[in-house]
Design goal:
single chain; 304 residues; mainly beta; 5-stranded antiparallel beta sheet; 2 helices
């Protein structure tokens, strides 16, 4: 009798989770998804032209809520002007997408936890700030980490204590970006540990911009950095022994010509890669490209 009751409860929970997932998936397949834009194929195109800014530029890491109805992104005056930088949001309310609104000033590069209840931000001085969703409203950001070493491009995973970040915790001064590596950071209530992911992901130069899949199965990294930070987007897969495969280029359509490519992000439905691209702040834009098929082909080529 007790076993049957437990089984019934498990079945009900599974049904509820499935129904919730189907509800979330429904919007992603609707005409309103991605602001109603016509999705790209494997040739990148500008994401949301004329929808996100009326002055300045957009750049850096972005995040969609799991249900696809809120988009978070960074707005700034320019690449090297932090005055007026802010995190903005664009929301789907009452059957239509609203104009962008300021979420918070002086924090950038929003990344959201897998349960959509916590948001992390970067800011001046390589600090990491955090806010929490409380009754549908984000609390004001407070500094979560301010170390003697740099913390850049902070990203959560499904594991609530495991994060990935670019850092020079193991060598160099905070302002020496040439010493930054892709790192894994484990944060508990009593301890914080950080370790470089080593080769083949890291190089002797700056290793800073990346996207980590929430399940830690792959990373899209900015690599082949020049002295002025032009770079390409490559992918590495996590192998069964927890090491990382030799990075592979995402191809000529994405890596065509010399440009800064950073802020890479894969949408919650797994279909599209969004990233920032520009040769200067004058032509800096978000781009998006169909990604799921490309990723699967590169995974097969990696022969894991």
């Amino acid at each position: 009798m007790k076993i049957n009751l437990i089984t019934s409860i498990l079945i009900i929970c599974c049904v509820q989770l499935y129904a919730q997932k189907q509800k979330l998936n429904k919007f992603w397949h609707s005409k309103y998804a991605y602001f109603g834009q016509h999705p790209p194929d494997e040739i990148p195109k500008i994401f949301a032209p004329n929808m996100l800014i009326d002055s300045g530029i957009v750049l850096g890491t972005v995040s969609f809520s799991n249900d696809g109805k809120t988009f978070y992104y960074t707005h700034a005056k320019g690449w090297f002007n932090s005055d007026g930088s802010q995190t903005q949001q664009k929301q789907f309310v009452n059957g239509k997408w609203q104009k962008p609104s300021i979420l918070f000033d002086h924090v950038v590069n929003p990344t959201i936890s897998s349960d959509n209840k916590t948001m992390y931000y970067g800011g001046n001085g390589s600090k990491v700030s955090v806010s929490h969703l409380n009754s549908g409203i984000w609390t004001s950001p407070i500094v979560l980490h301010d170390k003697v070493y740099g913390l850049y491009n902070w990203m959560p995973t499904y594991d609530p204590i495991t994060f990935y970040v670019s850092s020079n915790a193991l060598s160099g001064s905070k302002g020496d970006y040439s010493t930054y590596d892709f790192c894994k950071m484990v944060v508990t209530a009593t301890d914080t540990t950080i370790e470089s992911l080593g080769q083949p992901l890291n190089t002797p130069a700056f290793d800073g911009d990346f996207y980590i899949a929430p399940d830690e199965s792959y990373m899209v990294i900015s690599t082949k950095e020049t002295a002025t930070y032009e770079c390409e987007l490559w992918i590495s897969f996590r192998k069964k022994d927890k090491s990382w495969s030799e990075p592979q280029s995402l191809g000529n359509q994405i890596n065509n010509g010399s440009a800064h490519r950073f802020g890479q992000y894969v949408t919650p439905d797994g279909k599209y890669l969004i990233y920032t691209k520009g040769t200067s702040d004058k032509d800096c834009n978000f781009y998006w490209v169909r990604f799921d098929g490309l990723m699967n082909r590169l995974k097969k080529e990696a022969r894991l």
